[in-house]
Structure formats: C-alpha cells, structure tokens
Design brief:
Helix content is about 50%, strand content about 15%. It is an alpha+beta fold. The strands form five sheets. A seven-stranded mixed β-sheet has the order 14-26-25-24-15-22-23, sandwiched between helices. Strand 17 and strand 18 form a beta hairpin.
Length: about 700
C-alpha cells in the first residue's frame, strides 16, 4: 500500500445487532485500499484505517450507505443521532392501557350479545392498528431495509411476531374466531420497546464517559489581554500562549502552567484523588481540574484534543471501537441466530397446525411466542452492559480502559512484570555540587526533551530558558544537536558500582558530569505489591538500571524475581518466555519509551498518563497520575467484570434453552413471552450494576 495511512471514525445508523456489524465490516473490508475496519453495534461506531492514495473518505462513506448503514464522521457537527424511543413507548403504553379495558370486559365473561362483543373487538382493532402503525415502525422500517438488501437481522422475527399476532387477531372481528389478540399485539410492542430502550441506554452509558469528560471543560472564561484587561471568551476560542483567569468553582478547560503564586485544585476527574491538591507557581495544571478557594492565573500550553481531557476522551473512543473476545463471539452468534429463530417459529406453527390439529389462531400464537421469547436481547446485552459498567467504574478511579479484551485478560493475570524507575520508585536528585550555572542550564535544556523520570527529576522546578533539540534512544539517553548528551553510564562506556542511581551529562565542550539520585519508593508501592502477592500473582522486576540498584529495591519490597541491565528487547523476550507456559497471562506495567516493546509483548499492559506517548499508545490501561495503587481496582474490577459476564451469558443460555421448548409446547403465550424477554434484559442490566470499584 502506497499511502502512509489514514483513519476514519464515524457514527453509523441502523446498526441493530452484531450480525449487521459483521456484514458491514465484510463489505467495507473488500474495498481496495482498506486496511482495517471495525464496526461496533453496541456503540454505533465505525473505525477504519485505509490508504488515502487508493481510497477516499467520501468513497468509504458512500460504500457504507450502499450497504444500508449511512455513516457520518464524528468530526462533523450535527451527526446522526439515535431515534427517540420515548414517544413510541408512550404511545404503546397508552394503547395497551386502553385495549386492556376492552379486553377485560370480554375476558370477565360478562353477558353480552354478539354485536357488543363485535364492537369491543373492533375498538381494540382500531387501537391496535394505530399503535402498530406508529410505534411498530421502530422494528418494521429497519427490517424492511434489510430485506431489500437480501439480509436478515433480529428486527425481522420481531416484526413477523407483531404482524402475525395482528393478523390472527382480525379473525375475531371477521367472525372466524371467538378470541382476539389485540391486547397481546399492543403489549408485545410496548414490552419490546422497553427492551430496545434498555439497549439504547447501555450504548449511551458506554459513549457517555468520553462525552462527559469534554462536557466538563466548556463554558466561558476570563482571558487576560496584553494591556491587562479581562476579556470573556468561550473555552473553544482559547489558544496556546493565552493567559486565563480561572475562578473558584470553575473547571480548567486547558492544560497550562500556573503563573500565580499558588492555590488548591480538585483533580478527582483526571486522577481519582478525592483530596484537594496544593499547587505552586509553574506547576502544570491539567484540563479537568476544578479550582478551589482562590482564582488561578494560567498560561495555556495545550487546548482541545491536545489537552489531557481531550486525549482521555480520544482514548475512550478508541476503546469503544475495540471488542473483547466475549463480544466477538456474541457478534458471530447473532449473525446466524435470526434465521434459527424464524425456523423455530415455522416448525412450531407446522407442528401445531398440521400435526396436533390446532386452529390457525392457536398455531399462530405458538409461532409468535417462539419468535418473541427467543429474541436474544439478554445475550446481546450480557457483555456490553457489563463492560460499560466496568469501564465507567474504572474511569471514576482515574483509569482509562482502552480495550474490552484487556478487562478479560487482566482478570486472569498470573504474572505482572514491573519496570522500576517511575513505576515502583521515583528518583530524587541529590544536591548538585560544583556544577557551573551554564552547565546546569544546558543540562536542563536537554533533559526537557524526555518524559523519563530521571529527566523530569533533573528539570524539577528549574526555569528553562531554551530546549536543546535532541534524539532519545530507548534504554540509553538523549543526544543533543549541539553535541551534548545525557544518559546512563553505559551510554558513555562507564562502569559504575553500588546501589546508587546516576545520570551523566556531557557538555558540548566534552566535559562529563555525574548526577546522582536517590531512589525513593512510591507511597503505595509496598501495599500494591503485597495485595498482588496475597492474590497469588507472580511479580517480577525488569529494569534497564544497574542490577545492584534493582536488587536493592526488590529486597525492600519483597519481590524475588528481579533483573537489571535489561535492554528493551530483552524485556519483551522475558515476557515471551513467561507466556510459553500453559495458562499463563502476563501483565506489564511501565511508563518509558524503553518499555514499549514489553508493553506490546504482554497479554495486557498498563502505563501512566505522565509516561511517554509511545508507552501510552502500547498500553491497554492508562492510569491518570502516578498512583501504582490503581492497579488494585483494575485487577478487582476486571475479575468482577469477567465473573458477571460469565453469569450473564450463562443466564441467557439457560433462559433460551428453557423458554424455547416451553413456547413450542404452548405453555408460554405471546404476552408472557414479551414479559419474559424484557425481564431477561432487565436482569442482565441489574446484574451488571453489581460491579463496584
């Protein structure tokens, strides 16, 4: 493929089930220039990667429209929205209440003449026709579109059930049968719409996390003009370099550096910390932080998608388009389920009408009961409802989930491999002695290029007058364009012994300086290590730092498997070696550029928002902030998610295995089938809510 690659992220209409998503994926995958396409029926999202030299975005959108699923880029305003189901649901509820009043009169056995009974049936018929024509369109229209394109979705058996019940009901007003089923028609539509509303709610819950993040940083803010005046502007109009005043109670809409002397902020949205945090001049303030007590003057450094909240929202969107193993199985199952349901209904009708000599109306009701009771709403909600709940719970704890597959994998993790510096420990620079001012300035100007913990410690709160252009080599250090260099002893061919961490700086004139550090355990390292050891997880340290330094830290926290002087590729090889053992799931936790190969090699990976962009791209979970203790809710929520998905799928399977033969035997009426179908969806939803972080 000649092009460098482009991506498209869109919202899809009429994507009702996993079968529809699979068909759309297959049709778009056949386009020349298409590299990868994922359609998600739960979130109504489409993500495609393609060669822009061969395939255009317009051609991609046109192909999706021809396939019966109009799609619009999320970058465009006013994109397609899901239909409002509240009005059809209200109409169906109103119709059901009134039809029941006529039906009860007939059921009660009140002595009435044929004309009165006929009038009751006709009144019921008029109400049922109105409800079916208006509220039933929610099912009829997509089913008809699918049929025109030669395909079958779950809207078809539902539509057949409604229309078959309505047709059988008209036998009574025509004098061909004593019983009418107009109450069953309207009740069927009402209860089916309840299930559809629940499904829509799950999708909105899944999509809501990213939207809510960005919704917190909108509004109007005071921008300081060059002459000192305050100008009221929209958050969308802010640009890098602006100076803004964020007042108490407002949420910071951008990333920026604090210009004022200090204050306190609430960072619970982005880090999960419940306590207020004190900030000082030149501290980095992230978008999503809430200002407390006093106004803060901030220099804007990042806006929109480049700001932290924008990046978090983008990560959430990426997660929305990834499917876990359970969801993929559910999608494949849905692709063949609708024909099976229709076949079962035809078999039930034929059995009762031709073999058991039932009347046409009775045999039709058997077929309708089969169509309704076997609708896989519960199975379809089992995974997405649970994953959505788990994702939101972790987001509340300051953890971004980038893959549904990761939730399943982390729940079964048998080994966790840690990087050391920045993950288990934080470096604290010792006092610099005899370091010339110009050398210190040049060193910090070079160190500012890197997100490595040692580089960040070197920069500290020092004012940076300039940044030296540099290239960073994973596991070694930085080489500046002016000939200066900053990195490990190995980078300069030095031999260092003893449990002391150090970086070395070579000035552009060739002078070499040693920068010693003291490694300090993060506050929550010991508690986190103890938690996983108690859970029976095997822990390892793989670090590029010197082996004696690594062993000292490992002894302090009680990890017996530790190794230093490990190259980036060797970390990945170590993980591959662990994975060769049967039933082994390996998790990797790291934040540096040199951790990226290992993060990719692991079954599931965790990085930090303060880490390198490369490590974040490779990670399945991103911890907002630096708290290692957030691994604990990731582990516990993942295990709870896996357990509840299993319960929901088992419940859905048992429900269908029991309900189908009961419906075929005539023990379940269409009305009871609709109640059972809606109840199964509610049960799955309620079970998913049991996940707690």
């Amino acid at each position: 493929m000649s092009g460098p690659g482009a991506s498209f992220h869109g919202v899809v209409q009429d994507l009702k089930c996993g079968a529809c998503a699979l068909r759309l994926e297959r049709q778009l995958a056949g386009l020349e220039g298409m590299r990868r396409v994922v359609a998600n029926a739960t979130t109504h999202r489409l993500r495609a990667e393609y060669d822009p030299d061969v395939l255009s975005e317009a051609a991609l959108i046109a192909a999706a429209t021809r396939a019966g699923h109009p799609v619009q880029s999320v970058a465009q305003e006013g994109g397609p929205r899901e239909p409002n189901l509240v009005i059809p649901l209200a109409v169906a509820g109103f119709g059901m209440a009134n039809v029941m009043s006529f039906s009860v009169s007939v059921w009660a056995g009140i002595d009435m003449g044929p004309a009165t009974r006929q009038a009751m049936h006709l009144a019921s018929a008029l109400l049922a026709l109105g409800v079916t024509g208006f509220a039933g369109r929610v099912f009829f229209e997509p089913a008809l579109r699918d049929l025109r394109r030669g395909r079958v979705s779950m809207d078809l058996p539902i539509s057949l059930a409604i229309l078959a019940t309505l047709a059988a009901s008209f036998l009574a007003p025509l004098g061909l049968a004593e019983e009418g089923y107009f109450d069953a028609v309207v009740s069927l539509i009402f209860l089916l719409l309840i299930g559809r509303v629940l499904d829509q709610k799950v999708r909105r819950q899944t999509l809501g996390a990213a939207r809510n993040l960005q919704a917190l940083v909108v509004g109007r803010f005071a921008r300081l003009a060059p002459d000192g005046r305050l100008v009221d502007v929209s958050a969308a109009d802010l640009q890098c370099g602006d100076r803004i005043l964020v007042r108490p109670g407002q949420t910071v809409p951008v990333d920026g550096r604090l210009r004022s002397t200090g204050g306190r902020i609430d960072r619970s949205l982005i880090t999960g910390e419940s306590d207020a945090v004190a900030v000082a001049a030149d501290d980095l303030i992230l978008a999503g932080s809430k200002v407390l007590q006093r106004a803060l003057e901030i220099n804007v450094t990042a806006v929109g998608e480049a700001a932290s909240v924008g990046q978090m929202a983008q990560m959430m969107r990426v997660f929305e388009d990834r499917k876990g193993r359970a969801q993929l199985l559910a999608d494949r199952f849905a692709a063949t389920y609708a024909p099976m349901v229709i076949g079962g209904a035809i078999f039930g009708f034929a059995l009762w009408f031709f073999v058991l000599d039932a009347s046409l109306a009775e045999a039709t009701m058997i077929a309708v009961a089969v169509l309704v009771v076997t609708c896989p709403c519960a199975a379809g909600l089992a995974t997405p409802a649970t994953v959505a709940r788990a994702t939101n719970q972790l987001l509340n704890q300051g953890v971004l989930v980038r893959s549904g597959r990761a939730l399943e994998a982390f729940s079964r993790a048998s080994h966790i491999v840690f990087d050391k510096t920045g993950t288990l420990t934080r470096p604290v620079q010792t006092v610099r002695r005899g370091l010339p001012t110009d050398v210190a300035r040049a060193m910090t100007g070079l160190a500012a290029n890197s997100a490595h913990p040692l580089s960040r410690a070197l920069v500290g709160e020092t004012r940076i007058d300039f940044i030296t252009p540099a290239m960073e080599k994973p596991g070694e250090g930085l080489r500046g364009a002016d000939g200066s260099a900053l990195g490990s002893a190995e980078m300069f061919g030095l031999q260092v012994t003893g449990p002391i961490t150090a970086s070395f700086f070579k000035s552009k004139s060739g002078d070499l300086y040693e920068m010693p550090f003291k490694e300090v355990l993060n506050n929550d390292t010991k508690d986190t290590v103890y938690h996983f050891q108690r859970a029976g997880v095997h822990l390892h340290i793989q670090s590029g730092d010197r082996d004696d330094v690594v062993q000292t830290i490992a002894d302090e926290i009680g990890i017996t498997s530790a190794q230093g002087n490990v190259k980036p590729v060797a970390k990945a090889d170590f993980i591959d070696g662990l994975r060769r053992s049967p039933d082994t799931i390996v998790a990797m936790v790291g934040d540096g550029i040199n951790d990226a190969p290992a993060l990719t090699a692991a079954d599931v990976s965790v990085s930090f928002s303060d880490g390198s962009a490369i490590s974040q791209d490779a990670a399945d979970f991103i911890i907002i902030g630096e708290s290692l203790a957030k691994l604990i809710p990731i582990f516990e929520v993942s295990r709870s998610c896996r357990r509840i998905i299993g319960q929901n799928l088992a419940f859905s399977t048992i429900y269908n295995l029991l309900s189908l033969p009961l419906a075929l035997c005539g023990f379940i009426t269409p009305f009871a089938a609709a109640i059972l179908m809606a109840s199964s969806s509610i049960a799955v939803m309620l079970n998913a809510q049991r996940i707690r972080s």
